[in-house]
């Protein structure tokens, strides 16, 4: 079954709620950046056109400049506020952006309204509405329906101005009104199609990116799981020989760099073979699993425990001074926990631990040498225990 991301590719409609939220969050940073930059550009355009007012208006110049000043101040103030309150802006993005674009358009229409018949501003400043419409469809992330409403309101307001205030429908300027309306409506139609196309591609790009990200995460997870399986014993969950050797090398390298002392404890279970022979491998597995948990529970989280195979376990741990005493206390604790009976199928099964130790200050920072030394001492301990038992 395809993922919801893949299934949604090709659609410019809203996604399911959870995916739509991800998509909008993904756009948040871009929304803020584009809004601030657009505000600065709009402020520059509004202010620079004040020079053209001198030549395009015979009356109402001061009123036009006051309108421009008000829009510029509002613009820069909005950009400053958004830059400082990004989360609030993103939460109310549609209302803020739609409202500001209406203000830009209404500001242009107000300047046209204070001009007089015959002024250049009277006939051609409508082109500023085309600029606003272009920005509306290319510099915002409004939904197409919202952008269409804003663009329609700007066009409708211009027609009310042209017919109600300028009376362009009653004079020879009717042709100018029709031409202006043609270009204004055309700008909105072209912009709307452009916005639909961009919206579709933006959503497809988001879906593909999310699908790729999830595939990469799955691949990384599969690699981690493969590495875990390769380095861990499936029965006890402890590190296997290869995994323990790698961690031991890391600990030795770290200890050598910090002049620390690393201790190694080799553990062999006495009495384990009879359990396997008499009670079966299921009983033996139960004992191994219980012993592994007890060993892990006796040690610190930073200590490393592995099962080398069969009934052999090994522990690596950093030692504080006095090293020998610390290592001796740990060995006693491990011996005590190992000898605790394990309940299986109504029976109590008991094993004992033969332990051998080695430290990096006497055997050097060589993993193989440490393991060999600890192994030899474990066998010495086993021989002594057997001799005492005899």
UniProtKB/TrEMBL annotation:
Q: Which SUPFAM superfamilies match?
A: Nucleotide cyclase (SSF55073)
Instruction: Note whether Transmembrane occurs among the keywords.
Output: yes
Please list the residue ranges annotated as the GGDEF domain.
Answer: 260-390
Provide the alphabetized UniProt keywords.
Membrane, Transmembrane, Transmembrane helix
**Record keywords: Signal included?**
no
Q: Cross-referenced Gene3D superfamilies, in alphabetical order? A: 3.30.70.270
Top-level taxon = Bacteria
In Swiss-Prot or TrEMBL terms, this protein is called GGDEF domain-containing protein
């Amino acid at each position: 079954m395809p993922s919801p991301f893949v299934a949604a590719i090709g659609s410019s409609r809203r996604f399911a709620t959870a995916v739509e939220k991800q998509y909008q969050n993904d756009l948040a940073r871009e929304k803020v950046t584009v809004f601030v930059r657009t505000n600065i550009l709009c402020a520059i355009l509004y202010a620079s056109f004040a020079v053209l007012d001198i030549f395009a208006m015979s009356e109402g110049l001061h009123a036009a400049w006051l309108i421009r000043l008000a829009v510029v101040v509002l613009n820069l103030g909005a950009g400053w506020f958004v830059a400082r309150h990004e989360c609030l802006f993103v939460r109310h993005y549609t209302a803020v952006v739609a409202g500001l674009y209406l203000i830009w358009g209404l500001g242009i229409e107000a300047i046209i309204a204070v001009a007089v018949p015959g002024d250049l501003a009277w006939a051609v400043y409508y082109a500023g509405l085309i600029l606003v419409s272009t920005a509306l469809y290319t510099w915002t992330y409004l939904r197409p329906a919202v952008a269409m409403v804003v663009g329609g309101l700007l066009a409708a307001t211009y027609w009310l101005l042209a017919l109600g205030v300028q009376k362009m429908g009653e004079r020879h300027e009717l042709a100018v009104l029709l031409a202006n309306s043609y270009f204004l409506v055309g700008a909105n139609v072209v912009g709307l199609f452009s916005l639909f196309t961009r919206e579709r591609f933006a959503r497809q790009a988001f879906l593909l990116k999310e699908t790729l990200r999830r595939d990469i995460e799955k691949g990384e997870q599969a690699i981690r799981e493969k590495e875990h399986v390769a380095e861990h014993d499936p029965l006890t969950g402890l590190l296997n020989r290869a995994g323990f050797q790698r961690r031991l090398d890391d600990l030795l390298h770290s200890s050598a760099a910090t002049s620390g002392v690393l201790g190694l404890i080799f553990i062999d279970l006495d009495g384990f073979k009879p359990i396997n022979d008499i009670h079966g491998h299921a009983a033996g597995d139960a004992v191994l699993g219980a012993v592994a948990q007890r060993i892990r529970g006796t040690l610190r989280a930073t200590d490393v425990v592995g099962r080398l195979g069969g009934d052999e376990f090994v522990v690596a741990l950093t030692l504080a001074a006095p090293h020998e005493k610390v290592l001796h206390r740990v060995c006693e604790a491990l011996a005590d926990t190992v000898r605790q009976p394990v309940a299986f199928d109504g029976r109590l099964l008991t094993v004992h631990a033969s332990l051998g130790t080695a430290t990096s200050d006497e055997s050097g920072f060589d993993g193989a040498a440490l393991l060999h030394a600890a192994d030899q001492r474990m066998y010495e301990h086993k021989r002594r225990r057997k001799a005492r038992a005899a």
